[in-house]
Amino acid sequence: MMLIKPENHRHSGEECNDDSRIKILDPSILFRINNRVWCQNDGKQGQDNGQKHNLLKQFFNQYRRYFSLYKELLRFSFQNFIVYRAHFINSVFATVGWGAFQFIWIELLTFRTRSAFGWSKNELVVLAISYTIMMGILHFFFSHNMSRLSRIIDKGELDFLLLKPVDSQFLVSFYIQNYPNLVRVILGITLLFVYLHITHLTFTLIGWIGFICFIFFGVTLLYSLWMFYCTFLIWFPRLTNIIDFLFTIDGMARYPSEMIKKLNPIILFFILPFTLSVATPVKVLVRGSFDGDIIYLIIISVGMSVVSRLFWLYALRHYTSASS
């Protein structure tokens, strides 16, 4: 399968903006991907006509379809990514720069004191590194797709996605993967183990398992919040500054949740979920603390997943196509 080139093709080493890079993933590519993946599975499904009522088998067949489709999307995003090497290099430098900024922030915060809001300097450093890892995961999978949602609605490309025999939220959320942010994740994981080795910090196995599990809940919560807010673009496609708002609010996740809890209750309502998503897994790791924040994180992440899903389906029922 050949790569569709963008309009006004540029040299492979030249940097390009996001719009020109997005054009590489033309809707016709998704049409061919979707047909290939779905047709590959249709033959298998036809052999199982006698087991159509087997819900478990149907579930795994559907899972295989989406997994196969997502592998194709990953491959095309990677081809899109390697076409522009300069963009990759710039992204890596930006990622490293933001990582360094986290340590500068910790040094400034603990310059005159060894702790802040009940967090020691070592705990704050682990919090900053964990923030880097989780933001890397979020931006690799989701944020680039949310950033382009306004454009695809405004230009009528959402109509095409809605016509595909694939869940629309899946396509909107996973259409493009931002590979430079994998560097951010790898850098964060490396820094975490290096810092633990230098400071001779040791954590329990239960702490590590809890840390990994609650990172999953934290990323799920962040995605659900992004999805919920970006759904408003269905009604207001020109409200592009909502993405800037989300990037700004995400930055609050680097702070201890105890600091955020001292804010005004109205502000706390919007910001606390973001801080819980990062601070709670770190508490489990560094303190072995399975306190009330864990319950809050689980309830809010599951609740927001359901709410964002229902809100997206509700918005689609009120969506008027670009031709209307």
From TrEMBL:
<dbReference type="InterPro" id="IPR010390">
    <property type="entry name" value="ABC-2_transporter-like"/>
</dbReference>
<keyword id="KW-1133">Transmembrane helix</keyword>
<feature type="transmembrane region" description="Helical">
    <location>
        <begin position="263"/>
        <end position="282"/>
    </location>
</feature>
<protein>
    <recommendedName>
        <fullName>ABC transporter permease</fullName>
    </recommendedName>
</protein>
<keyword id="KW-0812">Transmembrane</keyword>
<feature type="transmembrane region" description="Helical">
    <location>
        <begin position="205"/>
        <end position="236"/>
    </location>
</feature>
<feature type="transmembrane region" description="Helical">
    <location>
        <begin position="294"/>
        <end position="316"/>
    </location>
</feature>
<feature type="transmembrane region" description="Helical">
    <location>
        <begin position="124"/>
        <end position="142"/>
    </location>
</feature>
<feature type="transmembrane region" description="Helical">
    <location>
        <begin position="82"/>
        <end position="104"/>
    </location>
</feature>
<keyword id="KW-0472">Membrane</keyword>
<dbReference type="Pfam" id="PF06182">
    <property type="entry name" value="ABC2_membrane_6"/>
</dbReference>
<feature type="transmembrane region" description="Helical">
    <location>
        <begin position="182"/>
        <end position="199"/>
    </location>
</feature>
